[in-house]
Design goal:
The chain is mainly beta and about 120 residues long. It is built from one helix and eight strands; from the N terminus they run ββββαββββ. The relative contact order is 0.25. It comes from Nitratidesulfovibrio vulgaris (strain ATCC 29579 / DSM 644 / CCUG 34227 / NCIMB 8303 / VKM B-1760 / Hildenborough) (Desulfovibrio vulgaris).
Length: about 120
Amino acid sequence: MDTFPTIAAPTSIDRCVNDPYIESEFESGDDAARPVFSTPREGVMTLKWPRLRIAQFESLRSFCASHRAVRFLWLHPTTAKAYVVRLKPNSPRWSQSGSQPGTYAVDLQLQIVREA
């Protein structure tokens, strides 16, 4: 299995826990909830780099283009836990600022499949 490219660590990692319940609201105003009986999935994880250098950005972009529908290993930079992940659609997203030449602001969304 391929591994995520060696580039600068993201400055922030946003993550959430998927609520393992299905909720419904009725026209009467009542609501109901029940547990999900299938395997619960982790929420989406967003990695952010406010200033990623061009060479590292090109490495990331090339990796993402060749791994769009492929699972790969990603190592958390602070906890050192390994995860099997896949890319979410329209990821990565980037912008270039005139005040920071030679860098890109990049957001990358990963779907955690499982811990490795």
